[in-house]
Amino acid sequence: MFYFWHSWHRAQPPHLNRLRLKAFGYAMRKLLRVILKIRIEVRSHLLTAESSNNRTTPKGHGLSYANKLSAHYLDLARTPVSKDSFAGVDVRFSNEFEALECELGKAQSIHVCGQVDWLKILEQSEAMLHTQSKDLRVAAWLTWALYQLESFQGLLAGLCLLHYLCKHHWPEIHPAKARTRAASISWLLPRLEQALGEDVAIKEQLPLFQDLLEQLKGLEAVCTAHLGNEAPLILPMSRRLDNMIRRVTEHASQPAVIETVVAQVKQAATQLLNPGAHIETEKEAHKALRAQQESARALCAWWLKQKATDVRALRLNRVLPWLAIDAIPERNAEQITLLRGLPPDKLRGYQDSLQRGNYADLLVEIEASLAKAPFWLDGQRLAWECLQGLGAELAMRELEIHFALFIQRLPGIVELRWHDGVPFADPATRTWIAAQVMPRLQYPTDSPAVDIADSHAPWEQALEEAQAALLREGLKPAVQSLRQGMQAAKGARERFLWRFAMARLCFSAKKYELAKIQLEALDQRLQSPELNAWEPELALQVLHLLHHCCELLPQNHPVRERKEETFRRLCHLDLERVIE
To answer: TM segments (predicted)?
Structure first.
């Protein structure tokens, strides 16, 4: 049979063979991943509990997947490499070690294409720790690979392994030099700081993060005892995680959130695994849509728990709840509907959390409420403010676009009220909609015409490239490209034109307040006679764009004053264009 397959394989065109090999390799990697999970499940049932003095596994939260994963890798740490040597030999110069370094180097290399194969890192690191060497460098790489593949459950398992090796086998493990051991753990620290950022929702997986904190504190104590002043700086990160946990526990309400999420996940899994019948009636179609919405809630909750700014969760949590809404609810002449808003105590709790800065955990709660209350428009603003607090510009833009399309599809939705007369959108939400949401319906480059004296000037070409980058990457990278050009400008006139290009970019991005600040500074500079003598038309272009910004901004007393003052000057300098 092998001879037949080999002969047939050689007879095929080379490109087909490459495709088959690639597909075969992908299938084998998926199979290995499944085998790894099965092995973890089986070995977790065979493990016996150690005495309380040697216990480093997470404590008593039931036989969860996180506990099984931690038990598996703790067993790996306990198992000697051989009968003669617990820690094996130093593998620093082995081919396997260099292969791991090469794979990890892809993350920093600008020449190597492709992403790091974290499953490969996990498998080879685990094999080395099991059969060749109990090496802290390899253990740190394994810990980060576990996080990449298993999220915080994997991170906990890796830290359990590291903690156990350092606590119980410090004299034996590799590398031998204290400085190299410290560097091995220090390699992991900036990555852990990135993983445990402010956009992580702790509240709904509190026991897991408490176990993470316990392992970090234990690892910090062991390293300090053995390394002294050369110990890696684990304490600042453990303190930050401790503060995050304390901030949640001090204001915790009901501890039943995790059970609710588990029930949702079980329900979603049952629905997904059930093949179901064919859809043949409108009733069956509606039932199928409801099932998809329930499944999506559990999926969004999972995504947000891993990263509160996950754009996939924000997108899905708006598409499905709004999918079947084709018309605004029934209402009377006062725009009052029969719908009920969120309870006042819950709204007060949301406001308190927002003021305390608990953005990540609050966003998870708000998104859960929005999934069940698609007409809660104030909730969209609260979610946006949480994203703003987390500095998630891409996620903010995603929310703005979906919400703008929803408002456009349902004219009059903003004016509606709940059954008790409370508006769907309070004044703060209406102002936010006018300033941040509705401008998304306009094409980003739809700005007032500017008379360009030299379209081939470097600032004009850079502006054109920045406007293209604005659509792909957002405002910040686009502004950075213009700032680089402005720093290389020669003379005051060129710097002025570069800054004017930056103001036009802000206007294209609908950041009218930013554009207004830039234009006011440019207008102030043009008040000097020598600068105004460069190009008289340039002053008019600045004034026209400044006036247009004032028209589009939310109207308050300073904005109205600036708009009227600019209009008077335009009437004096360019009456013909004002009339047009």
So the answer is: none
Mean pLDDT of 167-182: 90
- Single out the residue in 250, 272, 294 at which a domain terminates: 250
Q: Indicate if 425 and 302 belong to the same structural domain.
A: yes
CA geometry: angle 266, 270, 276, nearest 5 deg: 160
Whether 208 and 66 have beta carbons less than 8 Å apart is answered as yes
535 falls in which pLDDT band (50, 70, 90)? low
> How many CA atoms, within 13 angstroms, populate the side-chain half-sphere of residue 488?
8
pLDDT of residue 14: 52
Write down the residue that tokens 């059970």 correspond to.
259
141 lies in some domain: yes
Quote the number of domains for the chain: 4
88 φ/ψ sector (left φ>0, alpha ψ -120 to 50, else beta)? left
**0.70 exceeded by pTM:** no
Given this model, what pLDDT does residue 400 score?
Answer: 92
Tell me which residue range forms the domain holding 324.
Answer: 286-441
Token pair 């004053």 is found at 561
Nearest to 416 by CA among 337, 341, 519: 337
**Looking at residue 205, what DSSP letter applies?**
G
Judgement on whether residues 225 and 95 belong to the same structural domain of the protein: yes
Q: Structure tokens of 79?
A: 């198992």
**Is 527 contained in some domain?**
yes
The answer to the question of residue 260 being in a domain is no
CB-based contact 151:195 (threshold 8 Å): no
